[in-house]
Amino acid sequence: MAAEETGTQVAVPGAHEPDAVFPPFDQTNFVSLVVWLAVTFGLLYVLMAKVALPRVQDILKTRMGKINADIAEANRLRGEATAASVAYDRTLAAAKSRSQALAQETNQKLAAEADARRHTLESELSAKLAEAEAEIGRRKDAAMANVGEIAREATVAIVERLTGKPADTAAVVAAVAATQV
Fold it and tell me: For residue range 140-172, what is the model confidence (pLDDT) as tens digits?
C-alpha cells in the first residue's frame, strides 16, 4: 500500500517541499493557535496569581519578618554590648582609681615607716656618737694627762743625755707646764 492510497503523507528525511509553510505561521492554524495561546496564558496566569505568587509573597514576607527580627535582635545585642562596654570601662576606671589610691596609700605608709626608721636610726646614731665623743674626750684627757708626764720624763732624759748632768726636775716641770697652756 502506498502513501498516496491512504491519504497520508510520509516525510522523507532530506526531502524538502517548496510550498510547505512552517506550522505556526500557517494561516489555517492561526485561530486555533491564538485560542490555545490565550487558554494556556490564562491558565498560567491563574496558576501564577492564585498559587505561585501567594506562596512567593508569603516566603518574601516571612523572610522580611525574619530579617527585621534579626536586625532588631542585632540592635538589641549591640545595645547590650555597648552597655556592657560602658560598665566595663566604668569598672576599669574605678579599679584604676582604687589601685592608684592604694598605691599612694602604700607609698605614704612606706615613706612614714622609712622616716620613722630613719629617725630611730638617727637618734641611735646620735646617742652612739655622743657616747663616742664622750669616750674620745675621756681618752684625750687621759692621754693629755700622760703627755705632761711623758714630756717631763723625755725632757729629763734628753737633758741628761745632752749635758751628761742630771736635770733640775722643778725647772723641767715649770717648762713643760708653760708649753701646755
Answer: 888 777 777 888 888 888 888 888 888 788 888
Question: Which residues neighbour 147 within 8 Å (Cβ) at sequence distance 6 or greater?
Answer: 180
Q: Are 152 and 171 in contact (CB under 8 A)?
A: no
Distance of alpha carbon 97 from alpha carbon 110, whole angstroms: 20
CA dist 161 → 48, 108, 128, 155, 165 (Å) = 153, 74, 47, 10, 8
User: What whole-number distance in Å separates Cα of residue 105 and Cα of residue 38?
Assistant: 95
Q: What is the pLDDT of residues 17-45, one digit of tens each?
A: 556 778 777 888 888 888 999 999 999 99
Q: Where are the domains of the chain?
A: 29-180
pTM: 0.40
Contacts for 33 with CB less than 8 Å, ≥ 6 apart: 24
